[in-house]
Amino acid sequence: MLKAAGRSVVSAKQSLYLPEALAWIAALLAMALMDPDGAHLFSFCPFSYVLEWCPGCGLGHAIAWLFRGEIVASWQAHPIGIPAVLLLVFRCGKLFYLQCQSKKANCYYCVPD
What we know:
It holds the Pfam family DUF2752. This protein is mainly α.
């Protein structure tokens, strides 16, 4: 019984590797395709609604500038833009690696008794 529950948790976790990677790639592409000179129309950020200031403001613009090769403009928009892209690219790579490893090894045998 416990072994079966462990298998379902492992398989549920493995089934989330690919969707998470694709979500991060879609988010990066959306920010890369946006116009960095244009004003944003809406924001999901609760800080910008309540405080009218957000520590992450400009991050999307920084990523858009970075994808256009404008490193100085990216840094000026938000200094965390470059590390954020590097971190997300690394995370996507790791998720794809984990997905491939879970497909290679039948992970039902990986769960300890």
